[in-house]
Specification:
With 653 residues, the protein is an alpha/beta fold. It folds into 2 domains: 181 residues, no CATH class; 461 residues, Alkaline Phosphatase, subunit A, CATH 3.40.720.10. Helix 4 packs antiparallel against helix 5 and helix 5 runs antiparallel to helix 6.
Length: 653
């Protein structure tokens, strides 16, 4: 089993580290890896002793054990990875090992491939070669890729034959375990030590997005649960925008709009019909970090959403220092034996302890403060972008926040959440009341946890003398649906539960409390930052400074490729325009809706066809006509690592 652990760890740790850039490498949980090694040692010793008793020494126990291990791996891989492999490929690759094992068993002579090294490498290598989203290897290229692994198996079997495995495996395992502890993700770039070219009274800029947070679940916006006491305190000396509308309903399109000041139909970074992958943000669109870097700001991005806010989608541009690290994971491939150990541990742990796939807000804070503290105290002029993910599905708030609100079902894991989401979106069944209570209890707990971390961060900024002269912007990229209209999650509509987001702005050197009820958009953030800093606003931006006149705002939804496979009704795009309290929605299917949000905030009563709004419809038609004219660029390429992350997080099948 230790030999298997070494090979398994190589495929999960060493190989990704060798072939991926340091800022894209996601390490596995080293503590869990050590536990796995311990379990494998105990299990191997127990099975080996049992085999020795059963065979009564007539056959080598190590050889019998290798045969059993090989069969278990092959069967598991056949059922878990078969769609990614040609039906004949796994049996063909296993044939050399199987024949060598059988030959050794009956001839009492050790064949070259009759070792745990060969068995494990021959069986694990094919899925690691073929189970990738893009570029999908052909049979010829996959076979060629397999040859180095086959050569490695032969070399190891020759250097460390079966009779020598026990003598050498301990030292090899120690070296592998040490390597696993030292491999980690490295941020791209490094912060500058000084921004000496800027005037001394220039404010810093901090932008924080609370991923997946809908405004009506914040006590600051009237929610019955006290989820945001710290944001309430902040709002006492800041400006609260009561009706902020996200330009998009998913992370990529919304953040691209936040950074460019353009709506998604103009910057084109969104899901789209005909694509199994989202469009990356094209480099021809200037982003806020690039503008501020040119002005002399140190630009720092520390994000929890390592999928969309990454190099693969162009949202790391302009940052001198960009840290998209993910947390150490317990598992990345379901077809390795450590999956069984992980499932066993799950019986004794809380879901947030083993299912979390994003860094916690407190980890983001620690990383941000560490970078800030490395700068010269006299020249701290920076743009800091932080992204928290603790309210994102599968909703796993840590510690006391998991039980802060009633409704939690401790049996529900990330796996249950994925199955439930698919069933609800495909309309095979509705979301059950107990499921909805659980999801909302954990969602609200995640919001409360992020609020606590915001309170900590603000306190640390005050201690460092950085709070007063900082433009602090806290918002969300989109909301979340919990069964409304048979919708779960986000990225599927432009209803308020997905696009009405919080927005709090603490202007530098100001403690004035103000509430704005007029609709505003997240495309307004770039013009606002530049306006507050005293810089000119570039031509062509669709946003306006939040300190400027009132204007209509838009929001857009695009087809998610895999959800439309579950339910064809999502083969649609939607656009919305909000003017005052009126909201008009039009779908690519021809459906039209009109709501008065002042009287119907949950959009339950469509005023059409009895109450048409021709002015809003005309504006929306003009908006989309102009968008179609702008859609003349090709699709920027998205890399294979980005696609693998999309697949692992459920955005692709």
């Amino acid at each position: 089993m230790m030999a298997y652990w070494v090979v398994e760890s190589f495929f999960l740790y060493i190989l990704p580290w060798l072939r991926e850039p340091g800022y894209q490498y996601t390490p596995l949980h080293t503590g869990f890896t050590a536990i796995v090694l311990s379990v494998y040692i105990v299990a191997g010793a127990a099975v080996g002793s049992l085999l020795a008793i059963v065979t009564k020494g007539r056959f080598p126990a190590d050889l019998i054990f290798t045969i059993i291990l090989s069969i278990a791996l092959a069967v598991g891989l056949f059922f878990r990875v078969n769609p990614a492999l040609p039906s004949w490929y796994l049996p063909l690759i296993f044939l050399p090992v199987g024949s060598s094992l059988v030959l050794s068993l009956f001839s009492r002579r050790e064949a070259l491939l009759a070792t745990p090294w060969a068995a494990t490498i021959f069986v694990l290598a094919p899925p690691f070669i073929f189970d990738v989203p893009d570029p999908k290897p052909s049979l010829l290229s996959g076979t060629l890729w397999f040859l180095p692994y086959a050569a490695a198996a032969l070399l190891l079997s020759w250097l460390i034959p079966l009779k020598a495995v026990r003598a050498r495996i301990l030292s090899i395992s120690v070296l592998m375990l040490a390597a696993c502890f030292f491999l980690h993700q490295t941020p791209r770039g490094s912060p500058r030590k000084s921004s000496a070219g800027l005037p001394p009274n220039t404010p810093n800029v901090i932008l924080i997005t609370l991923d997946t947070v809908r405004a009506d679940h914040l006590s600051l916006y009237g929610y019955e649960r006290d989820t945001t006491p710290n944001l309430k305190l902040l709002a006492e000396e800041a400006t609260l925008y009561k009706n902020a509308v996200s330009a998009g309903n998913m992370t990529l399109s919304s953040h691209a709009s936040i950074f460019t000041g353009l709506y998604p139909s103009w910057h084109h970074a969104h899901f789209d019909a005909g694509y199994d992958q989202a469009r990356a943000l094209d480099s021809k669109y200037t982003v806020l970090p690039e503008i501020l870097a040119d002005k002399g700001f140190d630009t720092i991005g520390i994000v929890s959403n390592y999928l969309f806010l990454s190099h693969g989608f162009g949202l790391d541009r302009g940052f001198a220092y960009h840290d998209p690290a993910g947390p150490p994971l317990m598992l990345t491939k379901s077809y390795v034996l450590r999956n069984a150990v992980r499932n066993l541990l799950a019986l004794f742990l809380e879901p947030w302890q083993y299912d979390s796939i994003f860094r916690r807000a407190e980890e983001i804070n620690d990383a941000a403060l560490a970078v800030i503290d490395k700068q010269s105290p006299d020249h701290r002029r920076f743009f800091l972008f932080l992204n928290y993910m603790d309210a994102h599905g599968p909703y796993l708030p840590p510690g006391r926040f998991a039980t802060l609100y009633p409704g939690r079902d401790s049996r529900m894991t990330a796996r249950h959440y994925g199955t439930m989401e698919r069933q609800v979106l495909s309309e095979k069944r509705p979301l059950l009341d107990r499921e909805r209570r659980h999801l909302i209890s954990q969602y609200d707990g995640g919001i409360a946890y992020m609020d606590a971390c915001l309170g900590t961060l603000i306190g640390q900024l005050k201690q460092r003398g950085l709070y007063d002269n900082t433009l602090l912007i806290i918002t969300s990229d989109h909301g979340e649906a919990f069964g409304e209209r048979a919708i779960m999650g986000h990225g599927l509509s432009v209803y308020q539960d997905e696009v009405h987001v919080p927005l709090i702005v603490k202007y530098p050197r100001s403690t004035a409390k103000q509430e704005i009820n007029d609709p505003v958009s997240l495309v307004d953030l770039v013009p606002t930052v530049l306006d507050v800093l005293g810089y000119g606003i570039p031509k062509g931006l669709q946003g306006h400074s939040l300190r400027g006149p009132v204007h209509d705002v838009m929001s857009e939804s695009f087809m998610q490729p895999f959800v439309s496979r579950w339910n064809p009704k999502y083969l649609r795009a939607e656009q919305a325009i909000v003017s005052g309290s009126m909201k008009f929605i039009e779908s690519s299917t021809g459906n039209k809706e009109l709501y008065d949000l002042s009287r119907d905030p949950n959009e339950l009563h469509n005023l059409l066809p009895g109450g048409p709004e021709p002015a809003l419809e005309t504006k929306l038609v003009e908006f989309m006509q102009a968008a179609r004219v702008s859609k003349r660029l090709g699709q920027p390429e998205v890399g294979s690592k980005t696609l693998e992350n999309l697949k692992s997080l459920g955005y692709l099948q």
